[in-house]
UniProtKB/TrEMBL annotation:
InterPro entries: CFA/CMAS, CMAS, SAM-dependent_MTases_sf. The keyword ATP-binding does not apply. Coiled coil: none annotated. One of its GO terms (biological process) is methylation. Belongs to the CFA/CMAS family. It comes from the Bacteria. Its EC number is 2.1.1.-. Residues 421-440 have a biased composition (Basic and acidic residues). The keyword Lipid metabolism applies. Keywords: Lipid metabolism, Methyltransferase, S-adenosyl-L-methionine, Transferase. This is Cyclopropane-fatty-acyl-phospholipid synthase family protein. Signal peptide: none annotated. Residues 108-127, 416-456 are annotated as: Disordered.
Length: 456
């Protein structure tokens, strides 16, 4: 009997529903509804992976190794498959045994031997969870894969977080500039203030803040490759008198107080067990009345929070040791650390648009991406970004900017009476097309006495 119908029958037993798209097997046989995307099982080794790691991790390994692929619209295929795969249907033990026996027959004589994981899978992690050493290992796995690869995916902005879109925004670069400027306005940055950017990436935010707001900015990252790239950008733009890039954990930063702190797409790496420590550490680095902008991906709350498990594909291939929390928990822990939370803005739909642009960049230059990072790494990125875009679109996950203030507020004009006024203060183009500030040989004097100024 041809392989494809047998695979389809097994898949339908696992999903508890009819296979929603066409399937092609390694012997050339096909089955399923025509006219849509096609799942291609290129090698029987994919079935061996499922035998030893049933579920999402086995499928992910087969995808990364190129043993499973999609022909046609990847978004459409994932949209049809994600919900039933993630449902984790409870299959009776006798049916599981029947499925396993059929998988063994289809997998061939090598089935008793587990295939080694693709080399892109994170190596064995050492040390306690979210210790300084282990966090450095996790960050290096994801970010130290070549700056040229990130340039290809992220585009000229080199911003690896959710952009902010308007109806008339037509480029990813404009949307990322809008996000950077929105953060600066929410933080109320003024010339001469000190800004700490926790998890500064390739330096885009500190460069924007220094060039357009005249702040003295410190960016910290655990990625050596990011730091090298960011320092080159600082030097090229002549902002060395205002911007410092450090390879440093935020827990090792000790030269506060800062007038403002930004943490954009970094808190997801902190972990639930360490989040209170994270919030208290940032609180201690701010001056009284200083502002924190915490930009963080969130998941929906669960009735039983103890049932939350990190996504196995993301943990093994994308963000090792990363954890998502509901936005309510984030707000609560910031408040317990002493912050007053002043504004929470959801940007969920914006991240879906951003991810689709990143996927487009990758697919438009897939051969070059493969050359730069390897076929497996390029496949990891394509799958995780496309699946994440769908999750944001369907509210499976969200992203929020939380603006908080360190108490006590030491006088001064404070925040605007209507905090969202920062979204009404002219366009980003008006702000960023003004004449550049003249370079100064010496850093501007600190302006800590100006507590809580109105946003620019």
């Amino acid at each position: 009997m041809a392989v494809a119908p047998r695979l389809a029958a097994l898949t339908e037993q696992l999903l508890g529903a009819a296979l929603p798209l066409r399937l092609r097997a390694w012997d050339g046989s096909e089955t399923g509804p025509p006219g849509g995307p096609v799942i291609v099982v290129r090698h029987r080794r994919a079935l061996r992976r499922l035998l030893f790691k049933p579920g999402e991790l086995g499928l992910a390994r087969a995808w990364v190794a190129g043993e499973i692929d999609v022909e046609g619209d990847l978004y459409a295929a994932l949209g049809l498959l994600l919900a039933p795969i993630q449902a984790e249907r409870d299959i009776p033990p006798r049916q599981k045994l029947t499925i396993a026996r059929e998988l063994v027959r289809l997998a061939g004589p090598a089935a008793p031997v587990p295939p080694p994981p693709p080399r892109e899978e994170v190596a064995r992690r050492t040390g306690p969870l979210h210790s300084l050493r282990r966090d450095r290992q996790a960050i290096s796995h994801h970010y130290d894969v070549g700056n040229a690869f990130y340039e290809l995916v992220l585009g000229p902005s080199m911003v690896y977080s959710c952009a902010v879109w308007d109806d008339d925004t037509d480029t990813l670069e404009a949307a990322q500039t809008a996000k950077l400027d929105l953060i600066c306005r929410k933080l109320g940055l003024r010339e001469g203030q000190r800004l700490l950017d926790v998890g500064c990436g390739w330096g885009s935010l500190v460069l924007h803040a220094a060039r357009h707001y005249g702040v003295r900015a410190v960016g910290v990252t655990l990625s050596e490759e990011q730091a090298v790239y960011a320092r080159e950008r600082v030097a090229k733009q002549g902002l060395g008198h205002l911007v410092e890039i450090r390879v440093q954990d935020y827990r090792e930063t000790a030269d506060g107080p800062f007038d403002a702190i930004s943490s954009v797409g970094m808190a997801e790496h902190v972990g639930a067990a360490r989040y209170r420590e994270y919030a208290e550490r940032l609180y201690g680095l701010l001056r009284p009345g200083g502002r924190l902008l915490n930009h963080q991906i969130a998941r929906p709350p669960r009735a039983d929070e103890s049932s939350y498990r990190v996504d196995p594909f993301i943990d093994a291939y994308v963000f090792p040791d990363g954890e998502l929390a509901p936005v309510g928990r984030t707000v609560t822990l910031l408040e317990r650390a002493g912050f007053e939370v002043r504004d929470v803005e959801s940007l969920r739909e914006h991240y879906a648009l951003t991810l689709r642009r990143w996927v487009h960049n990758l697919e438009a230059r897939r051969a070059e991406a493969t050359r730069l990072a390897g076929a497996g790494r390029a496949r990891v990125w394509r799958l995780y970004m496309a699946a994440s875009a769908l999750s944001f679109e369907r509210a499976g996950i969200g992203v929020n900017q939380v603006l908080a203030v360190r108490l006590p507020v030491a006088g001064g004009p404070g925040l605007p009476l209507r905090p969202r006024a920062w979204t009404e203060r002219g366009t980003v183009q008006e702000r960023t097309q003004r004449p550049e500030r003249p370079e100064r040989q010496q850093p501007a004097a600190p302006a800590r006495a100006q507590a809580q100024e109105q946003p620019h």
